[in-house]
């Protein structure tokens, strides 16, 4: 019983970390839209690098695998995963 709760807490902790990261990204995106042109150039460079990794992840997801940290690389068995979808929308 105690172990089960502990496992659940650990899972929730990871989930929370992920969501916090998502919020941080969204905040950064918001700041970016308000940013100056120079800032924009810098983030575009960064996005290009991120874009390649993103394309790989998107392909992995299309092939039916999880790309979220909790289930990374495991089969989705045709199910949609909220966390995966959130990651893809970044
Ligand atoms: Zn997933």
Q: Could you walk me through the main structural features you see in this protein, from its secondary elements to its overall organization?
A:
This protein is mainly alpha-helical. The protein has one domain (2-89). 74% of the residues lie in helices and 0% in strands. It has helices at residues 2-34, 37-62, 82-89. The longest helix is centred in the first third of the chain and has 33 residues, at 2-34. The termini are far apart. 6% of the residues are buried. The model has no long low-confidence stretch (mean pLDDT 83). The structure holds zinc ion (ZN).
Number of helices: 3
Count of domains: 1
> What is the number of strand segments?
0
CA-based shape: flat
Keywords:
90 residues, binds zinc ion
What can be said about this structure in brief?
The protein is an all-alpha fold and 90 residues long.
Outline the secondary-structure elements:
Layout: H1 2-34, H2 37-62, H3 82-89
The structure holds zinc ion.
